């Protein structure tokens, strides 16, 4: 091969190998999915108890009390407060149910329910959304049911369950208010706020850089091409091992018995059909094997006769 061509090939291969190695080991952007919050809500049920004049409290109004004494309770208001945030148009459903739960006898009945909905974008607030509740009516109904079932009236529980629902995907969260009766007082317990979060998966890339979609397989392909070219160059210089021809194998086996000469001695010529027969004649007559290289001819000389074999032809 031309030396300039070889030098050019070496330079090209070196450049390709450097480029492909950098392409493979260079930290590169990879796609990932991140969750972006697109909707949040916080809804809490609250109580306002209005009292008659009394010497126990300095104020006539209690906010979110844990205990309210029945004899000084004028009325009780249950209401909802909440905040909603959304990065897009968001439909929301708020539903509640008022029920009575009796343990002896065991029964449960819903006395009132309601569903309201709205759609907003950005932010939305609910301030003092009233849930009408009449405790006297509910406890009277509870006593009536107990009597109808043949039981003496026992303290029951009045409960309110509130649910906020993301109408886009059906996800929901609930909170509650429980009012139990006993010893001339109402015991009130509040559930955790109904917190609801909606997320959307977004395609992003590591490092906050634009995603570059360069499959790493490209690097391997370039490397393979470079290695192939390098192997070709090496083979061109060194060459591949080739299979020996029959003449070469015979010379390897009988080389110590072959004498190279330039001219065949005078005498008659007898042609033999195979090199093996020539070997037999050499053994029988105790004569050496001669070889005329330029003619690829082997012969045995005996009694002025030359037994020749030229069946190998060209050695190449």
The helix-and-strand class reads alpha+beta
How many distinct domains? 3
- What spatial form do the alpha-carbon principal axes imply? rod-shaped
User: What is the CA-CA span between the terminal residues?
Assistant: 21 Å
Architecture (CATH level 2) name of the largest domain = Sandwich
Describe the structure.
It is a single chain. The protein has 316 residues and is α+β, with helices and mostly antiparallel strands. It has three domains: 51 residues; 169 residues, Immunoglobulin-like (Sandwich), CATH 2.60.40.10; 64 residues, no CATH class. Helices cover 25% and strands 46% of the residues. The protein is built from five helices and 14 strands. The strands form two sheets. Strands 1, 2, 3, 4, 5, 6, 7, 8 and 9 form a nine-stranded antiparallel β-sheet that branches. β12 and β13 form a beta hairpin. α1 packs antiparallel against α3. The radius of gyration is 52 Å and the shape is rod-shaped. The two termini are 21 Å apart. The relative contact order is 0.15.
Give a quick rundown of the structure:
A hairpin with a 2-residue loop joins strand 13 and strand 14.
SSE topology sketch:
Blueprint: H1 3-25, E1 31-51, E2 61-63, E3 67-69, E4 73-103, E5 106-131, H2 135-148, E6 157-166, E7 172-182, E8 185-190, E9 194-205, H3 217-238, H4 246-254, E10 258-260, E11 268-271, H5 275-285, E12 289-292, E13 297-302, E14 305-309
Parallel strand pairs: 10-12, 11-14
Antiparallel strand pairs: 1-2, 1-4, 1-9, 3-8, 4-5, 4-6, 6-7, 7-8, 12-13, 13-14
């Amino acid at each position: 091969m031309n030396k300039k061509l070889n030098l050019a090939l070496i330079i090209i291969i070196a450049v390709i190998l450097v480029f492909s190695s950098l392409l493979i080991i260079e930290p590169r952007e990879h796609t990932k999915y991140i969750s972006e919050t697109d909707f949040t809500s916080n809804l809490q049920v609250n109580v306002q108890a209005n009292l008659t004049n009394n010497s126990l409290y300095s104020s006539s109004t209690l906010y979110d009390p844990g205990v309210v004494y029945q004899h000084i309770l004028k009325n009780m208001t249950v209401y909802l407060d909440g905040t909603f945030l959304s990065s897009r148009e968001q439909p929301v459903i708020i539903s509640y149910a008022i029920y009575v739960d009796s343990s002896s006898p065991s029964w449960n009945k819903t006395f009132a329910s309601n569903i309201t909905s709205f759609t907003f974008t950005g932010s939305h607030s609910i301030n003092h959304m009233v849930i009408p509740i009449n405790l006297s009516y509910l406890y009277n109904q509870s006593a009536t049911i107990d009597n109808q079932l043949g039981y003496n009236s026992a303290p029951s529980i009045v409960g309110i369950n509130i649910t906020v629902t993301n109408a886009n995907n059906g996800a929901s969260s609930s909170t509650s208010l429980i009012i139990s009766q006993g010893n001339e007082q109402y015991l009130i317990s509040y559930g955790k706020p109904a917190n609801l979060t909606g997320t959307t998966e977004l395609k992003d890339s590591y490092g906050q850089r634009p995603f570059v979609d360069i499959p790493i397989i490209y690097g391997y392909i370039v490397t393979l091409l470079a290695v192939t070219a390098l192997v070709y160059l090496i083979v061109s210089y060194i060459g591949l091992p080739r299979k020996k021809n029959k003449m070469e194998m015979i010379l390897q086996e009988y080389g110590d018995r072959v004498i190279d000469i330039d001219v065949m001695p005078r005498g008659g010529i007898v042609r033999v059909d195979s090199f093996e027969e020539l070997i037999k004649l050499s053994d029988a007559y105790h004569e050496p094997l001669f070889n005329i290289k330029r003619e690829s001819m082997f012969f045995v000389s005996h009694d002025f006769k030359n037994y020749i074999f030229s069946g190998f032809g060209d050695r190449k």
